Amino acid sequence: MSILPIRVLGDPILREETKPIEEITDEIRALVDNMFETMYLAKGIGLAAPQVGRTERVAVIDVDGAKYAIINPEIVSSDAKTAKSEEGCLSIPDVYGDVERPTRVRVRALDVDGNEFEVEAGDLLGRCLQHEIDHLHGKLFIDYMSVLKRRSALAKWSKEKDKYPGFIRRLENDPADDHEHPDEEL
Ligand code: K1U
Ligand code: ZN
Questions:
Q1: Which ligand is nearest to the CA of 96?
Q2: Is 22 a catalytic residue?
Q3: Residue 126 near ligand 1, beta carbon < 6 Å
Q4: Gap from CA of 184 to ligand 2 centroid (Å)
Q5: How far, in Å, is the centroid of ligand 2 from the Cα of 61?
Q6: Which DSSP string corresponds to 75-143?
Q7: Is the dihedral of CA 21, 27, 31, 36 positive or negative?
Q8: Which of 27, 132, 172, 184 is flagged as catalytic?
Q9: β-strand 58-63 against 66-78: which pairing, if any?
Q10: How many angstroms separate the CA atoms of 74 and 177, rounded?
Q11: What span, in angstroms and rounded, lies between the C-alpha atoms of 109 and 153?
Q12: CA distances (Å), 12 to each of 9, 56, 77, 139, 162, in order?
């Protein structure tokens, strides 16, 4: 498996609409595996394809062990009630802000075997599903912030962004993970 570079705010791919996946190939399954590995290393709870430079409609999520790969997801219903809570984004490191969203959503998607499933969720999982599906439509959490709060979030980002030349965030593997395991073959 591989750790994928993460695209950060300013890379135009984060603003593009994704393309539905017509056929779930082994290459798509490998992409999903690599996205999970990248998300875990980045200590995120979700990751969408545009964040790793891909235009396919797929995202991965793991909120407290509720683990999903969502292919061609759609929100089929959302609660009329909304709630505000703080969000972050692996593509806008160190910037946080409150986002108001429906408290619960029902999402229909395909899994990696092409089977349709639905998940209904509130709390952090419901919020994460909405955040990831937004990514698949070129929308970012900062788009929901008030003009003043977005301005201050972007001011913070303008101090951070030079750390990411070419709008690329390269994650560092923990060197402790690189030591050879005694049972591993050379
Ligand atoms: O898509 C992403 O950028 C991942 C993002 C997802 C997300 C965070 C917070 C609310 C909704 C969706 C992250 O995982 S950023 C990391 C983070 O802020 C976080 C990590 C663990 C628990 C809560 C937030
Ligand atoms: Zn994000």
A1: 1
A2: no
A3: no
A4: 36
A5: 11
A6: EEEE-S-EEEEEE--TTSTT--EEEEEES-EEEEEE-TTS-EEEEEE-HHHHHHHHHHHHHTTT--GGG
A7: positive
A8: 132
A9: antiparallel
A10: 37
A11: 32
A12: 8, 15, 29, 12, 17
Per-residue pLDDT in tens (0 to 9) along the chain, 186 residues? 899 999 999 999 999 999 999 999 999 999 999 999 999 999 999 999 999 999 999 999 999 999 999 999 999 999 999 999 999 999 999 999 999 999 999 999 999 999 999 999 999 999 999 999 999 999 999 999 999 999 999 999 999 999 999 999 999 875 655 554 444 433
Kindly state if the Cβ of 48 falls inside 6 Å of ligand 1: yes
Q: Please state whether 129 falls in left (phi above 0), alpha (psi between -120 and 50) or beta.
A: alpha
CA-to-CA separations, 147 to 27, 32, 130, 150, in angstroms, rounded: 41, 35, 21, 5
Encoded tokens for 127 = 């919020």
- The residues with which 70 forms a beta bridge, in sequence order, are 59
* 146: helix, strand or coil: coil
